[in-house]
């Protein structure tokens, strides 16, 4: 299985863009096409008043092989953010990520698995797929 360096998908459009502290606003899975789409507001730098500036974009995973969304209580009032606050993400396997599941053992060599941890919901989202692409709005 290969490792996915997620921030590298953001390109050079926004020099300081990162998925850390991003806000996941929407998650959709299309089973007929094997596609998962995650819509984010991505932090891209700071304003003159030292506030985070966000730009929207969509992360799409194609060739979906596995997904897992940890059960979580969701409250839009959990913090002052409009979506799930992503405070950690990374490639799997990762000994530091305390997941409630194990990845399937038969994932292809060219596949990747990546996790997102939301402090808003205190839960993980895991996706394994074959291809990834990110588009700024």
Report on this model:
This protein has strands at 22-30, 35-46, 52-62, 66-69, 84-91, 112-118, 123-129, 131-136. The chain has 137 residues and is an all-beta fold. It has an eight-stranded antiparallel sheet, with no helix packed on it. The protein starts with 21 loop residues before the first strand and ends with a strand. The mean pLDDT is 92.
Main attributes?
mainly beta; single chain; 137 residues
Element layout with pairings:
Layout (H helix, E strand, L loop, with lengths): L21 E9 L4 E12 L5 E11 L3 E4 L14 E8 L20 E7 L4 E7 L1 E6 L1
Antiparallel strand pairs: 1-2, 1-5, 2-3, 3-8, 4-7, 5-6, 6-7
Summarize the structure.
It contains no helices and eight strands. The protein has strands spanning 22-30, 35-46, 52-62, 66-69, 84-91, 112-118, 123-129, 131-136. The mean pLDDT is 92.
Residue-averaged pLDDT, rounded? 92
Structural class, by secondary structure, is mainly beta
Distance between the termini: 30 Å
**Anisotropy-based shape:** globular
């Amino acid at each position: 299985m290969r490792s996915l360096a997620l921030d590298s998908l953001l390109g050079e459009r926004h020099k300081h863009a990162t998925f850390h502290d991003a806000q996941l606003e929407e998650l959709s899975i299309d089973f007929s096409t094997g596609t998962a789409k995650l819509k984010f507001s991505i932090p891209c730098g700071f304003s003159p008043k030292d506030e985070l500036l966000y730009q929207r974009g969509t992360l799409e995973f194609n060739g979906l092989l596995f997904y897992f969304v940890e059960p979580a209580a969701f409250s839009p009032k959990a913090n002052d953010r409009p979506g799930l606050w992503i405070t950690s993400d990374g490639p799997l396997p990762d000994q530091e990520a305390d997941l409630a599941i194990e990845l399937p053992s038969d994932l292809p060599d060219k596949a990747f698995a990546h996790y997102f941890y939301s402090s808003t919901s205190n839960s993980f989202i895991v996706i394994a797929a074959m291809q990834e692409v990110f588009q700024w709005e």
